[in-house]
Amino acid sequence: MDSEISPEIAPDMIRGRYPHVYRRLVHWGECDPQGVIYTPRASEYAIDVIENWLIEAAGINWLQIRDQGLGCPTVSTQTIFSHVLRVGAVVDLVIRVKKVGSSSVTFEVQCINEQGVLCFTVEHISCFVTDQPFASVPIPDEIRKSLEAYLAACKE
Q1: Strands laid side by side in the 70-71 sheet
Q2: Is residue 121 part of a domain?
Q3: Is 45 left (phi over 0), alpha (psi -120 to 50) or beta?
Q4: Taking CA 40 as the corner, what is the angle to CA 17 and CA 113, rounded to the nearest 5 degrees?
Q5: What is the mean pLDDT of residues 127-149?
Q6: Would residue 39 count as lying in a domain?
Q7: Are 91 and 85 a contacting pair, CB within 8 Å?
Q8: Whole-angstrom Cα distance, residue 9 to residue 25?
Q9: Is 1 part of any domain?
Q10: pLDDT value at 10 more than 70
Q11: What CATH number should be reported for the domain holding residue 104?
Q12: Looking at the DSSP assignment, which residues form a beta bridge with residue 121?
């Protein structure tokens, strides 16, 4: 990890980096009585980071997508835990776009602790759909451009 980055407690994007990194504190309410993060929180962290990325990089949020008569439901999510994550840890959540399909997008979010140890990886696949009828549709052009530009920037 970049040692020049000062720790921040609130979720925030560390700007100018590819891939984008969001820093956050693991709160007591997110953990079991032993102080270990509840398993479903990893998916919540990933979805929060994806939403932050959409706002920062693509300039759109979930509500604006809904206002266009579209949805972006989860198709699949997989979490691989590799190290315990405890209350009080400050972690970096690293977001990458792994694949852009015609109507779907695959994100990867890695959670890395202050020691640089990978705690978990979430692969999250979403698909753009219409409300009526409920059917997949191509990713809107403006969002696709942001996704593809970010995918390319992360590979450089």
Answers
A1: 70-71, 129-130, 135-136
A2: yes
A3: alpha
A4: 40
A5: 92
A6: yes
A7: yes
A8: 5
A9: no
A10: no
A11: 3.10.129.10
A12: 80, 110
pLDDT at 32 over 80: yes
Q: Are 143 and 60 in contact (CB under 8 A)?
A: yes
Nearest to 50 by CA among 82, 13, 87, 83: 13
Residue 5 inside a domain? The answer is no
Least Cα distance to 22 among 74, 60, 57 occurs for: 57
How far, in whole angstroms, is CA 25 from its chain's centroid? Answer: 16
**Residues spanned by the domain of 23:** 12-155
**Mean pLDDT across the stretch 64-93?**
94
In terms of Cα–Cα distance, which of 65, 49, 16 is closest to 121? 49
- pLDDT score recorded for residue 4: 34
Cβ-Cβ contacts under 8 Å for 56 (sequence gap 6 or more) = 13, 20
Q: d(Cα 50, Cα 95) in Å, to the nearest integer?
A: 7
- How far does CA 98 lie from the centroid of its chain? 12
Q: Which residue is it, tokens 């956050």?
A: 24
Angle 26-87-11 from CA coordinates, rounded to 5° = 10
Q: Whole-angstrom Cα distance, residue 123 to residue 98?
A: 9
- When divided into structural domains, the chain yields a total of 1
Q: Evaluate whether 113 touches 83 at the Cβ level (below 8 Å).
A: yes
